[in-house]
Design a protein that fits this description.
EC 3.1.3.-; 5'(3')-deoxyribonucleotidase; Rossmann fold; 6 strands
Length: 191
């Protein structure tokens, strides 16, 4: 299968690291995000949040650890013959930080598509992705409405009922299980 994989919140545990940094910067004590648009939780404008990220991008993209099980999961998918295509909202100007982080944690990559906060549907369709791993419910809905099944990695900011075409996964163990069930992977193989 050709699998689309978001980076922040799916491979990189970005939001946990960013919340710590943002609490220090804005003098807040946010414990977990309720909104994917973080500026809402921190009570600042989109512009103020954007400026902070622009001024600190190298640091903010370097500090997160991988999401638990992400590296091992991606390694398994590739070993099993799947193609992983990263599709991120990051901009092309952030490519060097993204590649540096993937290499730091030895996470394999071949294709990274930078959407610069544009809709991911066009990229998913152009690359003929067969399934998509995402954490942002808005992207998940748009991608699934385009006919591509989505595995939504559970997060504090994506709670609620899901429309058809989107399956919530609690962790990478469940992601691997779902992909194996949808592909030709032998059912008796261990996870």
């Amino acid at each position: 299968m050709r699998i689309g994989v978001d980076i922040d919140g799916v491979v990189s545990d970005s939001y946990r690291a960013w919340v710590r940094e943002l609490n220090g910067h804005f003098g807040t004590n946010i414990l977990e995000l309720k909104n994917y648009d973080m500026h809402l939780d921190f009570g600042v404008s989109w512009e103020a949040m954007g400026k902070y990220f622009d001024d600190n991008v190298a640091h903010l993209f370097d500090i997160p650890h991988p999401v638990a099980g992400a590296k091992e999961g991606i390694d398994k998918l590739i070993r099993e013959g799947h193609e992983v295509v990263y599709v991120t909202a990051r901009s092309l100007e952030e490519e060097k930080y993204t590649v540096r982080w993937l290499e730091k944690y030895k996470i394999p990559y071949e294709h990274i598509l930078f959407t610069s906060f544009q809709c991911k549907v066009e990229y998913a369709l152009h690359w003929k992705l067969e399934i998509f791993l995402e954490d942002y419910l808005g992207n998940a809905q748009a991608i699934s409405e385009a006919g591509i099944p989505v595995l939504l990695l559970d997060a504090s900011y994506n709670k609620g009922e899901l429309p058809s075409g989107i399956t919530r996964c609690q962790d990478w163990h469940e992601i691997i299980k779902e992909i194996r069930e949808r592909s030709s992977y032998p059912k008796s193989a261990s996870i």
